[in-house]
Specification:
It is built from 4 helices and 5 strands; from the N terminus they run E-E-E-E-E-H-H-H-H. It has 130 residues and is α+β, with helices and mostly antiparallel strands. Helix 1 packs antiparallel against helix 4 (107-129) and helix 3 (89-103) packs antiparallel against helix 4. The longest helix has 23 residues, at 107-129.
Length: 130
Amino acid sequence: MLKITLRNDEKLVINGAVLRSVGRTEVFIENEVALLRGREVMSPEEANTPARRLYFAAMLAYLDPEGRDAHRESILTLLADLMNALEAPQAKALCVAFAHHVGMSDYYRALADCRALIDYETGVLAPLAA
């Protein structure tokens, strides 16, 4: 069983259904589901860098089991492009961990790896934007 506490007006996606809390809410999940808290959900407009596009594709694969094969093809293409662009060993290690989790169909953990890649990418791109 998993207990999730939501703040007022916080979103939660469970198996593709978007829920919004009214007031502080506690939710108990008693079976296996695909769920993301609102802050873990990315809109198509936010997928504007290579690591963010990879996250978005993995998020869709996680939330859309029926379309997972098509999403997996997109993930593989985006991952290959990102791996070719990266030079830092720690970033490549994150890609390998991400690929391992995708290969095991553990998309929730793959998303965590990809959030670390987004953080890395943000750190690399920040000096360029200044």
